[in-house]
Amino acid sequence: MASIHNRIKEIFQQHFQAAPQVFCSPGRINLIGEHTDYNMGFVLPAAIDKAVYIAIRERKDRILNLYAADLDDSFSASLDQLQNSGKQWPDFILGVADQLQKAGNALQGFDAVLMGDVPLGAGLSSSAAVECAAVFALNSLFGLELEKITMVQTAQKAENEFVGLKCGIMDPFASMFGKKDHVIRLDCRSLEYEYMPFSMEGIAIVLFDTGVKHSLASSEYNTRRDECDEGVRIIRQAYPQVRSLRDADMRMVSECLAGAEGKIEQRCRYVVEEIERLQAGCHDLLANNLAAFGQKMFETHQGLSELYEVSCPEADALVNWVKNNQAVLGARMMGGGFGGCTINIVKEEMLPALVQQVAEKFEKQFQRTLTHYVVHIGGGTCAL
Ligand code: GLA
Question: 3-class DSSP state for residue 367?
Fold first, then answer.
């Protein structure tokens, strides 16, 4: 099978009778640090070897012609009247164009084809990958000379303001800044980051897909954000120095939130614990102690499931089944939640048997075939 790079060039040629430039941007995994980005904590994501590709050529007018090859669907718009398309996939590109224009960048129209192998709606950030590919392509096409971090912020703003999802910075950051064989320890407040080597020797990363299409737009993600903000508001009455849950500790959570309404205390407890867990997990990685790191992934899952309540029965089952399995060092649900994939760090030689075992259990319990992806850590957004 021809590579996606070659195929997208051919498709562009057929569709627009011209030769394009091609850019690509990867999906992401996150080892630990979930729902911590918008609380100004830390995350530990990495880009994967599955990516979104965009083939693009500038036009002389103000028209955007977009074609999603995998969906065989087209959409056209004018740069002078950017609004939601009503069918989602074009919005990631329209949103980026809109943000770039709002920031004062001069754009022209363009023809573009999209294609890729990042599974959609599986929690691997296909949307951030499209946004990063688009902003990187437009930056290059129109000589905008934007810094990478500005491109990341543009992608996030497109998602927040145009698509309407209040997500944090982790996904576009991981897609844009990914580095082969490294995870990124990102401080979501200062945006300082550090590449940490992640040795895959004898290790495989496998994702089990719950098959439940998560819709982060569903009010739950935004509700969690509101609960965290409310927790901060209450803690600040006693500790004005606390600007986000990043600044809080367990003592403050217990002292200030014990009587708080609803589930605010347990939501905040999870976040504060998770920020601490990530710091300790980074020490494990530096000490090359994957077993200790993996245990923390299981703890994260428990927190996400019981305290933060963003898991689902399929993800809980997938994690529980591998918990005491010799082949698995660590596992947890990954991403926003309510579906998507679990991430598993597995001893490579035991991978085939594990996949078979888990697939059988899954089919028996949920009467569906289990999809899994073995992923490698790859580089970030680039021109091809
Ligand atoms: C989604 C969001 C991210 C992050 C994760 C949870 O992937 O896009 O910003 O909040 O959920 O860690």
Answer: coil
